[in-house]
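Run log, item B.
One chain of 148 residues. Sequence copied directly from the ordering sheet:
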Amino acid sequence: MADINIVTAKWRLVEVGRIVLFTHGPFKGRLAAVVEIIDHKRILVDGPSKGELPPVPRQSVALQNIILTPLVLRKLPRAAGRAAVAKVWEKDGVDEKWEKSAWAQKRKQRERRGTLSDFERFKVMRLKKLTRFETRKAHAKVRASEKS
C-alpha cells in the first residue's frame, strides 16, 4: 500500500487558550483569551492584559464579535480562574508578542493615519512618492550596470 501523509490545515481553531481580538462592542480592539467554549456560537473569555486600557472582564462573547489570532496560551486548563489566566498570560508574554506582530503594527499605523490632518496626509503622500522615486532610480542604476 502507498504511504498516505495527512496534513492538517493551518486554520485558527476555536480552542481553550486561543487569544482573540474584539471587533465590536465596548472592548473593541482589545485582547482576551478563550477560557471555555460554551456552544458553537459563544465562548467565555478573560483578558488580563496590562496595556494602557483596563483588562477585559470574564464574560460570554459571541464568535461573530471577535477575531481569532494566531497566538495561543498552550498550557491553559479549561475553565481556568482569573489568576491562572493572568499567570499564563504573563509567562507567555502575550502583550509583547502582540505588539511585535505585523497585524498589531498595521492596526496601530491605520489608527495613527486616521487621526492625521489633511496637510499631514499630503506630507505622507509626498514622502511616499520620494521613496518610490529613489527606489526606482536605484533599480534603474542596477539594471543599467547589468546590461553593460
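Observations after the first pass:
- Residues 46 and 89 are 10 Å apart (CA to CA).
- The longest strand covers residues 31-37.
Flagged for discussion on Thursday.
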